[in-house]
Each structure stands twice: as C-alpha cells, then as structure tokens.
Predict the structure.
Amino acid sequence: MGVEFESFDKDREEVTLRFHAPDSFITPRGSVQGGLVAGFLDEVMGWAHVWATDHVEAPLNLDITMTLLKPVLAGPLVGKGRVVKRGRRVIYLEGELFDGDGSLLARATSTAIPTPRPVAE
C-alpha cells in the first residue's frame, strides 16, 4: 500500500501514516478505487491499536464503516488513526484520510477484537 510511518501520539493513542496512491489505483473516473481507500483507513486504525499496546496486540475487525467525502486522487495522502475506546473484548477505532493540502477525504470507524499480534517467522 506504499505506507510510511510518521508518528505516534501515546496520549491520544493516534498514529499518523503517509501513503502514496499510485496511478495503478486510479479508476476510469479519476479517483482511487473505494476498496483501496478502505484499505488505507483500515491500515491507520489497525496500527493505532498496535502502537497503543506497544506492539503486543493487533485488532481483528468485526466491521468497518467508511464515508467518502471527496474524491481520493493519485499522490500523497496522510492517514490518522486512533483508538476511541479499548476494552478487554472489544475495541473501537476511527481513522481519517487527508490529501497533501490537509483536506479531509474519507473517514472510517471500526469495531474489532483485540488479539495477540502475529509474529513473522
């Protein structure tokens, strides 16, 4: 997905990631395909929880709800994901996607189950 970590704010439990939507993600209408936008938002929400748990847990999504506010065009994007509420059995996450000028393009929420983070072998 062309993701680059920028920062994590422990107090807000908010991660900031940078993406670059390549031309290959663009539909004939001229914007990024919606499923790929959902992927960007899923990435920022998931990493918010991973960072908030010091990389011990990863969320397993039960649902994701996304709203597209403006067309997402090729080029640089900034995603912000945060933990809204974390319980032992359910966590609530939210994410936002901005263009390079800071305009809000899309937002999402997710309900997820906290699970041990898989370890790559």
The CA atoms of residues 79 and 97 lie 4 Å apart.
